[in-house]
Amino acid sequence: MNPLKAGDIAPKFSLPDQDGEQVNLTDFQGQRVLVYFYPKAMTPGCTVQACGLRDNMDELKKAGVDVLGISTD
Fold this sequence. Notes:
Elements lengths: L13 E3 L5 E3 L7 E7 L5 H12 L1 H6 L2 E7 L2
Parallel strand pairs: 3-4
Antiparallel strand pairs: 1-2
């Protein structure tokens, strides 16, 4: 599999959310989605990244962007 570049269409995936419910990328079909990856929940790296997105959430929502964060835990 080749690495994705900005603007590429992501492959379909289904992963559990923080409550164990399945989230499918296809649930967001036709919408703008910003997918970000972080190494582990509740770590400094994830906090900085998530806070930056949180601080800009109003602008992202105005632009019609949904945000999905994915970690390995």
